[in-house]
Amino acid sequence: MGVITKKIKGTEDVLPKRSYRWQFVENIMREEAENFGFKEIRTPVFEHTELFARGVGQTTDVVQKEMYTFDTKGGESVTLRPEGTAGAARAVLENSLINEGLPIKAYYLTSCYRYEKPQAGRLREFHQFGVEEYGTSSPAADAEVILLALSIFKRLQVENLQLEINSIGCPDCRSKYNESLKKYFSEHKDTLCKNCLNRLEKNPMRLIDCKNPYCAEIAKGAPSILDFLCDDCNSHFEQVKKYLAVAGVEFKVNPSIVRGLDYYTKTVFEFVSNAIGSQGTVCGGGRYDGLVEELGGPRLPSLGYAMGIERLLMVMDNQDIEIPLPEPCALYVAGLGENAQEKAFEIVNMIRNSGLFAEGDVVGRGLRAQMKYADKIGARFSMVLGDNELEEGRAKVKNMTTGEQTELALDESFAERFIALYTASKFENVE
Fold first, then answer.
1. Does residue 366 sit in the same domain as residue 305?
2. 295-310: string of b/e by CB count within 10 Å (b at 16+)?
3. What value does the mean pLDDT take over residues 1-25?
4. Do both 249 and 276 map to the same domain?
5. Residues 297 and 336 grouped into a single domain
6. Which of 55, 203, 323, 426 could tie 59 with a disulfide, CB 3.0–4.6 Å?
7. Ranges of H-type helices in 247-362
């Protein structure tokens, strides 16, 4: 049997030397979400297939073509989550979170799975930060979740993202709009792609955002959903725009935004970058007032969005945004001989218990190799322990940048004295 050395197509490894970038972005996402009153929710990686069929929509590409679905040994059909909202809504219902007071505000950092052609910014396993807010129909909530996304982009220093918003109305609005779309696109049947021909009867709104260049050209002349909004939906959309204006948020109304999942109603929005090619949507979301009811729950107006972490990192790379490097090793302790190695192990543990990153040899290297390793990992200080240091109860700590050496006692005060030395060196580097 051969050695398995290749990852599955459409997946990526996040290696230790790069994972700090993900942690930095994710930590800011968590902090900003919690500043807005959102708490973390974690749901299973797989759910009953029916959850996504009912929640996401039978006519969507996600359900029809892209889901990883399989039967369990017990004969149940289960699916790896293609998105985070349906699972979160299921968890809200199953755990009776509605009884804990409204609105329910939750966020998640999760992996999702869709079978589609891998390309830059589009993987079969991808990662999202998402927020869900249940139990409010207020336009202020729509503006609030958009402001949360903006606060994350601001913290990350991401620029040149265009906020585009639209309203796709309620089921009544869309019913009339769909009839108008059918009539319009039926006149162009000979030019439409196969996917659009299939959507024409089942989900004509999806023709608006088809990426086929011929279909996209036809869609430019299609009726606008904004001309079909009922008074309630139109008023809601106008209020959302007013709240965004009050907050000083620039936006563009784009009637072609329909989103790819059936559960959306009223407000939909996207943050788009022109820096990462065709996969330019970094964040997208909106309202899904009928989703919880569709899953068997009560009428519970809801909204939220998902932000693609891989795509966001691509934008940050494109804009040369510096992500702070993790704190380097504060102290590397080399031990020569069995007794010195034991003392080195004790000191390393002492420094770690004080909250700093420390390392010692666990491979069995000689002194020269140990010091080479200390330099490789960027240790700020190093210390060599041998028989002489143990006998005297003192050792020299070397600043690896300046070469300056400071002698410290190898007693219970060592950690305290070293931390003072380390802290002072950091201030010197800033100056």
1. no
2. bebeebbbbbbbbbbb
3. 90
4. yes
5. no
6. 203
7. 291-294, 309-318, 338-353
Alpha-carbon distances of 287 from 29, 112, 141, 236, 276, rounded to whole Å = 21, 20, 10, 11, 26
Alpha-carbon distance of 306 to 108, in angstroms, equals: 9
pLDDT at position 278: 60
Token readout for 151 is 């606060």
Burial of 393 (0-12, 13-18, 19+ CB in 10 A): exposed
For 158, residues 6+ apart whose C-beta sits below 8 A from its C-beta are: 312, 315, 316, 319, 321
The pLDDT tens digits of the residues spanning 72-100 come to 999 999 999 999 999 999 999 999 999 99
Give the end of a domain, one of 250, 284, 318. Answer: 318
Residue 379, domain member (yes or no):
yes
Distance between CA atoms of residues 323 and 27, nearest Å: 12
389: nearest Cα among 413, 411, 357: 411
103, two tokens: 């609105």
213-247 pLDDT, tens digit each: 889 899 999 999 999 999 999 999 999 999 999 99
Clarify whether residues 275 and 361 are in a common domain: no
Q: Inform me whether the pLDDT recorded for 430 exceeds 50.
A: no
CA angle 273, 274, 277 (to 5 degrees): 110
Radius of gyration of the chain from its Cα atoms, rounded to whole angstroms:
28
**243-269 mean pLDDT:** 89
Cβ atoms of 39 and 106 within 8 Å: the answer is yes
Rounded to whole angstroms, the Cα distance separating 47 from 378 reads 45
- In 3D, which of 274, 269, 298, 272 has the Cα closest to residue 286? 269
Domain count, the chain: 2
The burial of 256, by beta-carbon neighbours within 10 Å (0-12 exposed, 13-18 middle, 19 or more buried), is given as middle
Indicate which CATH number applies to the domain containing 360.
Answer: 3.40.50.800
Is 214 inside any structural domain? no
Q: Which of 26, 81, 25 shows the shortest CA–CA distance to 49?
A: 81
Q: Are residues 234 and 347 in the same domain?
A: no
Element (H, E) at 429: helix 414-430
| Position 221 in a domain | no
- CA–CA gap between residue 396 and residue 410 (Å, rounded): 10
Amino acid at 402: T
Q: Which residues pair with 105 in a beta bridge?
A: 133
pTM score of the predicted model: 0.90
Distance between CA atoms of 341 and 361, rounded to whole angstroms?
Answer: 8
pLDDT at residue 431 tops 50: no
